[in-house]
Amino acid sequence: MVSSTIVLYSVLNKLRLMKLKFLGTGSGWGVMIHQKRATGGIWLEMNDEKIIIDPGAGFLCKAKEYGIDPTDLTAVVVSHNHTDHATEINVAIEAMITGHDGKYGTVLASHNVLNTSDKYIRILSRFHEDLPERVLEMAPGSEANIGKIKVYGTKTEHYETKCVGFVFEGSKKVGYTSDGTYYPGMGSQFEGCDLLIVNNFLPHGNFMPGHMNTEGTIMLAMEAKPKKIVLTHFSEQMLETGPSHEAVLIEKQTGIPTTAAEDGMEIIG
What is this structure's pTM? Predict the structure, then answer.
């Protein structure tokens, strides 16, 4: 006969469906260089998988600071090869394979992470590319799996046309826009998300090609209609205006609960 303690543990384990930890909420250039906000990426735990999304500068140090063991990783996911997103991809892969014999884990990454372009040096070393069990290129519309989690690539309009966003569908459906400005129809890729993580780079009234502002997040939210929105990847202008102020504005306009992430913030749901 199964004890009530084991049954209770099983129920509680199923209720703890997803965990997110923000190892940074900053963006590139001034914010990253001066670490006004950290740029270590987003740690996702779901369906027994442990995933780092966009391990930028500071991933390893922030993991240690927040009590995360990076050797627990089962997958590394990278949207594009800019330094605030991909600086520590090789470090993350080394952490992932530590303690395992032979090839281990999964890497999902955009074209410009896995291939040399005329403009950028290849950020993933050939040595580290050979360490995981699987290394797959992701593009808009592509599909892959990390264990029981289905991963979908989404289209972005960032400087780099090969930049890709993601939807992780397991016990929860989590969307991540990565970088890029809003475009009509963008929200259709994130329909049904329990949580949508938006790289809301700029506050309302500000515009920069290839980056999301608050007005864009509002239009995206009205299309996608996620259950919750979390803002991250803040520019200096966003930090000056106040991310929480922009979250209130978005929630007021859309009716969707919206939170501005802080470094070290954890979401369990």
Answer: 0.93
